[in-house]
Amino acid sequence: MAYASAVTMCGGSDMYFTENNWVSYIPIVLGIAIVAMLFMNFKGRQTWAAFIVAFTGFVLITLTHQLIIPSEYYTAGSILFILAIWINGSFSSFTATVKGFFQKTFASWQQ
């Protein structure tokens, strides 16, 4: 559900700013839902790191929505939401895989 909410927000700079009606508040509601879902899958420090990234994305989207900063920052906010979901989900296994790959590669070079 969190991934679906984040992907829905990716096109928001084009979709949600055409009219100032209730539809334009969908990114803010989805942002709050994503942050809530991060804490539903609480993993300690990993979740807190994801929360900081998600909150930064939420601030960018909210400030874009309120027309305080340019709309280019909306996409950056959406990317930060997807990154936060990844950090809370499977980022640690990804980093372990990459670390193991580089350790094997460098070990073979030393032989």
Quick structural overview:
78% of the residues lie in helices and 0% in strands. By secondary structure, it is mainly alpha-helical.
Provide the succession of SSEs.
HHHHHH
Radius of gyration equals: 17 Å
State the low-pLDDT regions, or none. Answer: none
* Structural domain count: 1
**Portion of residues within helices:** over 70%
The dominant shape is elongated
In DSSP terms (H or I, runs of 4 or more residues), the helix count works out at 6
Percent of sequence in beta strands: under 5%
Number of strands: 0
Average predicted local confidence, pLDDT: 77
Outline the biggest β-sheet: none
Distance between the termini: 47 Å
Keywords: Membrane, Transmembrane, Transmembrane helix
Transmembrane segments: 22-40, 47-68, 74-94
Could you explain the architecture of this structure?
The chain has 111 residues and is mostly helical. The protein has one domain. Helix content is 78%, strand content 0%. It contains six helices and no strands. The model has no long low-confidence stretch (mean pLDDT 77). The chain crosses the membrane at residues 22-40, 47-68, 74-94. Keywords: Membrane, Transmembrane, Transmembrane helix.
Characteristics of this structure?
111 residues; 0% strand; transmembrane helix; mainly alpha; 6 helices; transmembrane; elongated
